[in-house]
Amino acid sequence: MSVLEELWYGNLEPSEYSFSSSREYKELLHLVSRNEEKLLSTMTQEQKELFSRYSDCVREFQSLAELLLFQSSFKLGARMMAEMMVE
Fold it and tell me: pTM of the prediction?
């Protein structure tokens, strides 16, 4: 089955990728979690609510940034392939 067919039938999910093998990712995730726990333990309930809203906005921003990066990268790849076909 071709890559396009795999994509069509839902066997490929471009937005899914595994970080499980990345040591740097695991270390940073642990550091983020540990620092968030420390920070939350020092906050009042009002501060925790504000931080929660802030975190939600950051996650939404990151999702949008990832989408834009994916689109840009896909377009670049398509341009590279088109250029290769001309040569």
Answer: 0.67
